[in-house]
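Project outcomes to date are best conveyed with an example. Our students and postdoctoral researchers have been running inverse folding experiments weekly, and each run begins with a structure described purely in tokens. The record below, which covers 113 residues, was selected by the lab manager from last quarter's runs and is presented without edits.
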């Protein structure tokens, strides 16, 4: 196994990933068959805050409400974000059910610094 530190992903090609040094931007190509993107565990709800600041414009744009879902609310496995989007679409224009789920799910624990 090889650990590559202080590099970012600059370009994803069909058969490789081009990385760049965090300090010098020096590029390196790494051949690969697939890329799995693992994002930050920090939520980013800046789009929601921007929309909330413009609430007076919603009616003219046909917007009735804004809700934070998926990774913008609480980053987690891709399945959770996918479910959040699917659930939101199914429940659009219905009474808010809150965080209650119609089933039980297993949540594995992990430490976050």
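After processing, the design step wrote out the following sequence:
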């Amino acid at each position: 196994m090889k650990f590559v530190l202080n590099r970012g992903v600059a370009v994803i090609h069909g058969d490789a990933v081009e990385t760049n040094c965090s300090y010098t931007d020096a590029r390196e190509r790494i051949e690969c068959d697939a890329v799995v993107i693992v994002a930050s565990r920090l939520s980013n709800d800046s789009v929601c805050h921007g929309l909330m600041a413009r609430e007076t414009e919603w009616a003219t744009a046909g917007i009735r409400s804004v809700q934070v879902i998926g990774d913008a609310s609480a980053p987690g496995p891709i399945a959770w974000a996918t479910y959040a989007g699917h659930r939101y679409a199914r429940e659009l224009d219905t009474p808010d059910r809150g965080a209650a789920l119609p089933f039980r799910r297993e949540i594995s624990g992990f430490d976050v610094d």
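Residues 44 and 72 are 5 Å apart (CA to CA). The chain has two domains: 1-37, 46-91. The training component of this project remains on track.
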